[in-house]
């Protein structure tokens, strides 16, 4: 999911732009920054902590109650940009007065880093929710999409424009397009069309100087980096040109819900290897395990009869029958899946709802599996962990197909391709702060520890869009710049061999480290 959830405040640090300049006080830096903004951006788009609408705007996109508490470090102000010029002005004011920006599109950063800071700092949030236009060009099978649009808004616009066009996105409709693509964008059709970021044709980014650059102006290195390397590290990506995929007028969805027993463990063991063999990229089956149940969610780019035929031939253990199938258009399939509906006539407009999540506390972690866990392994996972904690979940996205064997690991910063069977997202959730948090973190950490010998190693791979600060945080050196070595600790888990190239790009486009958070790419600055 970029599934999905995250919350509150964001970051602004002080920078000294001249070696002999004095460092301004926090108070004067903040005051001068706010004064600069008020001269350039309409007042109704600015919210300081004293504004009556500050908290409602701040929490409007919060997706995790963990970051909606009084202990959360909140921004000095929120800029709700409605024009690209406002983004440019915010960056220029921030750099001039030593205040950093954190950028929010949908608010699903799993550690809330798009609107909060871990440490006490002066910072501002640049909220892109007003920049949400989707302009579909059916004749050329492409679309320009603003970063503040959600996946649901993108799916709706594409579906309204053509019954045979689609985009390979994720299963959560409120995830922001900007965050989804900046993290690589795994999803339901990547086995056929690659990740979301693989399908970006062009982009417009505001760099650390406040300049607006397209692909030709930014160059291929920066264009490569923003498509999965964490866009917040290099600038503010305000819009993306996407390649749309051609799909049949009719696709098929199916869901199989099984109580866990010995046969379910055998089905999961078969499902693991089914991702790579046989080569059926038109078929995706994701698995969700929680408590004593496992749900298999199927999306097939074709008819029910063809799906049943392939399942009988290659995966009869799942027992998919015609009665399990629902045929519909791709857009309706996205509504059916993303809205968790049982109604095949679910209104497409439901994907347009932008909601927050202030009632559930969530912690996430991730893994990649390259060697099958096997039947005995799944029996142990259920017996020792899932069956004991109903508020613990594993969401597994199959790889293989195009994303695993056709696209090279270095095509974009997303490196988890060749040899990967599937990705795991671990989710622990609870509904009250305090002791419940300690228990839930114990559950997820216990399962994560149990899985160590069963998943990838050296490094133990992780997905940047399932951000996890437990695997490492940046340290800032005496020169005021994030150290390369501190970034490597977590960065090589997210990006593997692509991390050094990302740091090299960062060193060229933002050597002063203006765009920074606890897990931003550090600039590699050769001596």
UniProtKB/TrEMBL annotation:
PROSITE patterns named in the record: FAD_PCMH
Keywords of this entry: FAD, Flavoprotein, Glycoprotein, Signal
Signal peptide extent: 1-21
Required cofactor(s): FAD
Top-rank taxon: Eukaryota
Pfam families: BBE (PF08031), FAD_binding_4 (PF01565)
Presence of the UniProt keyword Lyase in the record: no
UniProt domain FAD-binding PCMH-type: residue ranges: 71-247
Entries under SUPFAM superfamilies matching the protein: FAD-binding/transporter-associated domain-like
Glycoprotein recorded as keyword: yes
GO molecular function: FAD binding; oxidoreductase activity
Family membership noted in the UniProt record: Belongs to the oxygen-dependent FAD-linked oxidoreductase family.
Protein's name according to its UniProt entry: FAD-binding PCMH-type domain-containing protein
Natural source organism: Triticum aestivum (Wheat)
């Amino acid at each position: 999911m970029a599934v999905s959830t995250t919350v509150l405040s964001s970051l602004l640090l002080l920078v000294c732009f001249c070696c002999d300049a004095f460092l301004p006080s926090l108070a004067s830096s903040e005051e001068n920054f706010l004064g600069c903004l008020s001269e350039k951006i309409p007042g109704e788009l600015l919210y300081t902590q004293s504004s009556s609408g500050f908290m409602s705007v701040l929490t409007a996109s919060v997706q995790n109650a963990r970051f909606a508490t009084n202990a959360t470090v909140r921004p000095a102000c929120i800029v709700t940009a409605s024009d690209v010029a406002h983004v440019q002005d915010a960056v220029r004011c921030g750099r001039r007065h030593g205040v950093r920006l954190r950028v929010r599109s949908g608010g699903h950063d799993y550690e809330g880093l798009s609107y909060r800071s871990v440490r006490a700092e002066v910072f501002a949030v640049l909220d892109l929710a007003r920049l949400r236009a989707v302009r579909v060009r059916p004749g050329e099978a492409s679309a320009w999409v603003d970063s503040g649009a959600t996946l649901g808004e993108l799916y709706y616009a594409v579906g309204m424009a053509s019954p045979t066009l689609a985009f390979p996105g994720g299963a959560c409709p409120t995830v922001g397009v900007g965050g989804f693509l900046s993290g690589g964008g795994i999803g339901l059709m990547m086995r056929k069309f690659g990740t979301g970021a693989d399908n970006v044709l062009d982009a417009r980014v505001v760099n650390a100087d406040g300049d607006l650059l397209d692909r030709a102006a930014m160059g291929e290195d920066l264009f490569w980096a923003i498509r999965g390397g964490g866009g917040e590290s290099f600038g503010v990506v305000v819009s993306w040109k996407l390649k749309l995929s051609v799909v049949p007028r009719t696709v098929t969805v199916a869901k199989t819900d099984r109580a866990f027993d010995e046969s379910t463990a055998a089905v999961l063991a078969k499902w693991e290897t089914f991702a790579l063999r046989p080569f059926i990229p038109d078929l995706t089956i994701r698995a969700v395990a929680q408590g004593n149940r496992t749900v298999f969610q199927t999306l097939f780019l074709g008819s029910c009869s063809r799906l049943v035929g392939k399942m009988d031939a290659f995966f009869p253990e799942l027992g998919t029958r015609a009665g399990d199938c629902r045929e519909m258009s791709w857009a309706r399939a996205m509504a059916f899946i993303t809205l968790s509906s049982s109604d095949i006539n679910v209104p497409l407009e439901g994907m347009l709802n932008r909601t927050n999540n202030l009632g559930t506390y969530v912690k996430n972690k991730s893994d990649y599996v390259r060697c099958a866990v096997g039947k005995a392994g799944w029996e142990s996972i259920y017996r020792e962990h899932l069956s004991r904690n109903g508020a613990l979940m594993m969401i597994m996205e199959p790889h293989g197909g195009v994303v695993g064997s056709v696209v090279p690991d270095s095509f974009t910063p997303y490196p988890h391709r060749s040899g990967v069977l599937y990705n795991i997202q671990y989710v622990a959730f609870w509904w009250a702060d305090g002791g419940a948090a300690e228990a839930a973190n114990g559950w997820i950490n216990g399962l994560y520890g149990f899985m160590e010998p069963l998943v990838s190693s050296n490094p133990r791979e992780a997905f940047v869009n399932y951000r996890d600060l437990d695997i490492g945080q940046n340290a800032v050196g005496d020169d005021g710049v994030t150290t390369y070595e501190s970034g490597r600790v977590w960065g090589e888990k997210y990006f593997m061999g692509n991390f050094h190239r990302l740091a090299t790009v960062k060193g060229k486009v933002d050597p002063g480290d203006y765009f920074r958070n606890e897990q931003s790419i550090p600039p590699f600055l050769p001596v």
